[in-house]
Amino acid sequence: DLVALCGQTWQGDGLLLRSHSASRRFYFVAPDTDCGLWVQAAAPGDRIRFQFRFFLVYSLTPASSAPPVPSASSPAPAHPCSRGSFLQFYEGPPGAPRALGAPVCGLTIPAPVASSGPFLGLRLVTRGRQPRVDFVGEVTSFRLVPSLVPSQTGGTDVGTSKPSTLFPPLGSADPLWIAAERSPPAGRDPAQQNATSEGSTES
């Protein structure tokens, strides 16, 4: 649970993370919460991906309308989450976090988030007199595997390529294609093939 692991760093292959222990039964309603959790990839070179399965983060009574002091850790005043509860993602180690995207809040499940390095941070902030927080997300440690198939643009494509079948252009008379069409089947004498062709013509 995010609230139970507040202030810690968790490392592993995968984790089903809930907002609190009573998730999907009761809202987390503690006001003025500011709780952060850092997730570290299982191995060097891996990255972290977070995908919500259920999401509900908002406040029934928003915080004061007085504009907050701008900072790197707070949403801009014009942002929909600026006056209520929100969840913010970060990347980088705990000592040097960098905001990853805009804060998320509301009732719509946000898009998956992936870090560019081995660390992904989550920060839950509740504001207002009636916060409502309940979410479940899946944390996955993954590694980008380069493809072995070169693309036409000089990069690499995922998957394998199949050899294409060549056909002559319509209306063309390429000698190589004509010779291939006239060549006898393997194991047959050209003279026998010609005799067979002449016999079928006379009949």
CATH class of the domain at 9-142: Mainly Beta
Total number of helices? 2
Anisotropy-based shape = elongated
Mean pLDDT score: 77
Termini Cα gap: 89 Å
> Which range does the strand content fall in?
25-35%
Spatial ordering of strands, largest sheet? 1-3-8-5-6
Biggest sheet statistics = 5 strands, mixed
Classify the oligomer.
Answer: single chain
Radius of gyration: 32 Å
Structural class by sheet pairing and helices: mainly beta
Give me the count of strands.
Answer: 11
What is the second-level CATH architecture of the domain at 9-142? Sandwich
Identify the CATH homologous superfamily of the domain at 9-142: Spermadhesin, CUB domain
The helix fraction, in percent, is 10-25%
Stretches where pLDDT is under 50 for at least 5 consecutive residues are 66-70, 157-188, 193-197, 199-203
How do the SSEs run, as a string of H and E?
EEEEEEEEEEEHH
Region (Disordered): 150-203
Organism: Daubentonia madagascariensis (Aye-aye)
Keywords: Disulfide bond, Lipoprotein, Receptor
Biased composition (Polar residues): 150-164, 191-203
